[in-house]
Write a structure and sequence with these properties.
5-stranded mixed sheet; binds 6-O-phosphono-alpha-D-fructofuranose; alpha+beta; 336 residues; 32% helix
């Protein structure tokens, strides 16, 4: 049984310019995860469920736990002094850390501190998503917007925490995807899933079919393909969607499957955010042998233009993504 901290140190030599800062940064995320996990596990007993009555920059109602999680991750990252700034779903703009330690650090973190948080009140799994880049702006100066508007292929690390039947932290530094399960009696993460891989094929599809009438033609065709009866290709597939990206992703990573949040007539760019949802999940996907695209092109190559920009998101088992991409191409002319 090796702990997350021991594993990070053991693998540190594999990191580019391995000087310990990234290891320390991952340690700060681990610490904040434990604090957030404790509150989530007793959410029904304390005044922390429900909404704040406030809205984030996306116009979405902020849950009390959204803000709690955001503050805990922000504080842990600033205190550790390895990060010069963060961007978050819960922050209108990026936040530059200007303490002496932080301003001289090399990294920035982008995060969705509590994804799927509307599920908290009904006791359904939620998650944290994080993405780590090396800063572009000069060390010793405040972080700038360009530090955060980097394409996903520049990430040095990415990961998620799933607060489910057990609490797991899954991350990559570009050398495979590794999962750690928390022992709640000790509050310690232990390696439980080393070198996680997306099965090339799967029989699970995750999408909000309530939006069917608003989907692009290629997605409609793919859904009908999933539902056809053909034992040779193990169809009909199984529909599994719980409204929490991290949980749907995690199940599909373990069992094989595809997660789709496409553009719709009412949301032409889709719903998920490129910088702190799609890019980190895409890095994990590719490191696990899967594919992540916007239906046409690689997520990690999309050049960001703004912090909270949205993109359509197709990710998971490579043969499943390949199938839907073929239908997206075949029917894309119908949409023009
Ligand atoms: P819908 C949660 O708000 C989230 O960002 C993802 O975690 C989840 O998969 C999706 O949105 C759910 O969106 O429109 O289906 O409720």
């Amino acid at each position: 049984m090796i702990t997350l901290g021991e594993y990070i140190i053991k693998k540190q030599h594999e990191l580019p310019n391995a000087s310990g800062e990234l290891s320390s940064l991952l340690g700060a995320i681990k610490l904040a995860t434990k604090v957030v996990n404790r509150e989530i596990n007793k959410a029904g007993l304390v005044d922390i469920i429900g909404s704040t009555g406030l809205e984030n920059v996306q116009g979405e109602t902020q849950q009390k736990l959204d803000l709690f999680a955001n503050e805990k991750f922000k504080a842990a990252l600033e205190a550790r002094g390895e990060v010069c700034g963060i961007a978050s779903e819960e922050e209108d703009d990026y936040v530059s850390f200007n303490s002496k330690n932080s301003i001289n650090s090399k990294y920035v973190v982008l995060m969705d501190p509590l994804d799927g948080s509307s599920n908290i009140d009904v006791n359904v799994s939620v998650g944290t998503i994080f993405s780590i880049y090396r800063r572009i702006s000069p060390v010793g100066e405040p972080a700038t917007l360009e530090d955060f508007l980097q394409p996903g292929n520049k990430q040095v690390a990415a990961g998620y925490v799933v607060y489910g039947s057990s609490t797991m932290l899954v991350y990559t530094t570009g050398n495979g995807v590794h999962g750690f399960t928390m022992d709640p009696s000790l509050g310690t993460f232990y390696l439980s899933h080393e070198s996680m891989k997306f099965p090339e094929d799967g029989v699970i599809y995750s999408i909000n079919e309530g939006n069917y009438l608003k989907f692009p033609q290629g997605v409609k065709k793919y859904l009908k393909y999933c539902q056809e009866i053909d034992s040779a290709t193990k169809r009909p597939y199984t529909s599994r969607y719980i409204g929490s990206l991290v949980s749907d992703f995690h199940r599909n990573l373990l069992k094989g499957g595809i997660y789709i949040y496409p553009s719709t007539a009412s949301a032409p760019k889709g719903k998920l955010r490129l910088l702190y949802e799609c890019n980190p999940m895409a890095m994990l996907t590719e490191q696990a042998g899967g594919v992540a695209s916007d239906g046409f092109k690689r997520i990690l190559d999309i050049p960001p233009t703004e912090l909270h920009q949205r993109v359509p998101f197709f990710c998971g088992s490579k043969n499943m993504v390949s199938d839907v991409e073929a239908m997206m191409r075949e029917y894309s002319s119908d949409e023009e």
